[in-house]
Structures are given as C-alpha cells and as structure tokens.
C-alpha cells in the first residue's frame, strides 16, 4: 500500500497531519485548471478552520491547495470531518483580470500582470505575438494567461505543486507494464468528432468558407457545424476553427486503465502498455487521473486520449 499523508494548514498558522484518514480522492484533469482533493477522516473534536491541504504519496508531493469546504459531523457512529480543496490554481481562477489590450503580448507580460502578485513563478516558454491581444471583462486571471498560451501552443497551462506555471509534461511516459492493471479498455466513439465547419468572417456574408477533417471524412463520419468568427481577431480565427475540430475529436479514440494501488503520473504523459498493444511514445496522452483510497483499498484510474492527425483542409466554396 502507498504511504498517504495529508497535511492540513489552519488559519491560525498551525499545521498537522491527518491521523485517521479513511477516504481520499484526488482528481486531476488536463481540461480543468484546478485539481480537486476530497478527504474524510475521524476526529473526536471539530478542527479549527482549515485554509489549505498538502498531499504526499510515498513521499512525493502530489497536491498543494486551498480548502473550499469543511464539514464536521457527529452521530451515533462517531465524529467525522470532510474536506474539499482545490489546487493553488484556484487563486488564478477565482480572481478577475483587469480588462486590457496588450500590444505585442508575451507570456512574461501576462504573467507579471495576472499571476506574479499571488506568489506564483513563471516556468512557461517565452511566447511573443506581434498582434494585439485583448482581455475582456469577466475573464479570470487564469483565463487571461491560458487563452493566450493555448492559442499559441494548443496546450493548456498547468500550475504545479511548487506554484509554477508550466506547460504539462510532454516527455514523460506512463509505463503500465510493471503495474497491477485491474482493467484496461479501449474505446472508439464515432459520435464525438465533427467532420466539417462552415464558417464566415463577416456578419453579412453566407457560410461559404469551410474547414474539414479529411481523416473523419475518410472514416465515413458526416457531421457539420456552422460558426461565425467575424468578431474574432484575424490571428485567432484559424486557431478557433482548428480547436473546435480537435476538441470534438478528443474522445474519438480513448484508452482507460484501472491500477491496483495509488500511482501518480504526470498529465500529458504518453501511454506505454505493451500488454494492451500500445508501445512507448504512443499517441495516447494522459488526460485524467483519479487516485482513490477507501476501506476497499487503493486504485488509480487513468484516462488517455489519442492525439489524432485530423488532416485539416481549409477552402472556399461559393
């Protein structure tokens, strides 16, 4: 069994480890800014107000975040505490960015404007754009940075346990050959992908422009959407269309593994599982991780999505 240690931080400034933990669930998702942690433990007395939680598995820090909710329950079965926390990225999600238009924006400029004051560190690649970039009212500090980075790299921003803004791991390998795999499943979901997007770049023109996936077309999938991108800056239009196609096709091919025990893997790691017919450096990337510990034991659920070459083609048809 893995050594699971949960340290609680209190508003008083004190901290201590949970002693009678009987349930833990850690969820990390590449499509969500924040990781989520749920803890349940026995406690004779109601604890002080909890401000944060740090989780270690086999000595490795895998979560550091802020407490959103705590509950204390006493009944005939005893006294119990429930805690829900989000990773420190919650600071960027919960705070609104100041509306602004950046000329020749960069990751360094956006980091200094939106994240540095919260104590984060910048480990993002130095990206610069020659076009203007606007942050509209209602955008979170995370959204202001993430939209720019994702437009430039097609990859979302992550906040790691050291409070660093990073791109998710791309060179890591989730090697399952030595793991106790309880269940492995591959799925083809043909109801997800979009084959073609009809779009227009001016409000008073018809949908005569098109971008399509030759891969979906060759596979016999027929699914079309209409999109008006006239309000977008020109440099963001192609990304928006490509992102729509790629997002729809994300769950076209998936692989899911359940492992006995708590095993932590970095999101975006490539899958290697020779027993399942998947070799190292495959096109399957870890998109979701769920670690669970309860009275029935420990397990790790991993969801991998295959990176597909959609073979996009853009054309105009009158």
Describe the fold and architecture.
By secondary structure, the chain is mainly beta. Helix content is 14%, strand content 43%. The chain has an eleven-stranded antiparallel β-sheet, with no helix packed on it. A four-stranded mixed β-sheet has the order 17-15-16-22. Helix 2 runs antiparallel to helix 3. The mean pLDDT is 94.
Task: Using brief descriptors, characterize the structure shown.
43% strand, 22 strands, mainly beta, globular, 5 helices, 318 residues, 11-stranded antiparallel sheet, single chain, 4-stranded mixed sheet
Write the layout of secondary structure elements.
Elements: E1 4-10, E2 15-17, E3 21-29, E4 36-42, E5 50-57, E6 60-75, E7 78-87, H1 90-94, E8 100-102, H2 107-114, E9 121-122, E10 133-135, H3 141-153, E11 158-159, E12 164-166, E13 173-175, E14 181-188, E15 196-200, E16 209-213, H4 214-218, E17 224-228, H5 234-248, E18 253-260, E19 270-272, E20 284-294, E21 297-306, E22 312-316
Parallel strand pairs: 9-12, 13-19, 15-17
Antiparallel strand pairs: 1-2, 1-5, 3-4, 3-20, 4-7, 5-6, 6-7, 8-10, 11-12, 14-18, 15-16, 16-22, 18-21, 20-21
Helix pairs in contact: 2-3
């Amino acid at each position: 069994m893995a050594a699971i240690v949960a340290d609680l931080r209190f508003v008083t400034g004190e901290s201590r480890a949970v002693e009678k933990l009987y349930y833990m669930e850690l969820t990390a998702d590449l499509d969500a800014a924040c990781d989520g942690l749920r803890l349940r433990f026995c406690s004779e007395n109601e604890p002080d107000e909890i401000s944060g939680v740090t989780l270690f598995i086999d000595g490795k820090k895998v979560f550091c975040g802020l407490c959103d909710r705590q509950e204390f329950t006493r009944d005939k079965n005893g006294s119990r505490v429930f805690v829900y926390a989000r990773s420190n990225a919650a600071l960027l999600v919960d705070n609104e960015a100041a509306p602004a238009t950046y000329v020749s924006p960069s990751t360094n400029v956006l980091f200094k404007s939106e994240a540095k004051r919260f104590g984060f560190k910048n480990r993002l690649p130095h990206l610069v754009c020659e076009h203007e970039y606007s942050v509209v009212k209602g955008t979170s500090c995370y959204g202001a940075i993430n939209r720019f980075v994702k437009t430039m790299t097609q990859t979302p921003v992550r906040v790691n346990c050291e409070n660093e803004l990073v791109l998710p791991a791309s060179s890591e390998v989730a090697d399952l050959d030595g793991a106790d795999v309880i269940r492995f499943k591959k799925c083809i979901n043909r109801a997800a992908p979009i084959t073609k997007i009809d779009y227009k770049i001016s409000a008073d023109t018809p949908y005569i422009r098109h971008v399509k996936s030759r891969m979906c077309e060759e596979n016999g999938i027929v699914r079309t959407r209409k999109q008006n991108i006239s309000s977008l800056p020109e440099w963001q239009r192609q990304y928006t269309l490509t992102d729509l196609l790629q997002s729809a096709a994300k769950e076209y091919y998936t692989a899911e593994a359940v492992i006995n025990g708590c095993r932590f893997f970095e999101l975006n790691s490539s899958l290697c599982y020779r027993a399942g017919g998947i070799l190292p450096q495959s096109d399957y990337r870890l998109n979701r991780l769920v670690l669970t510990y309860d009275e029935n034991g420990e397990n790790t659920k991993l969801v991998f999505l295959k990176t597909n070459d959609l073979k996009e083609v853009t054309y105009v048809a009158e």
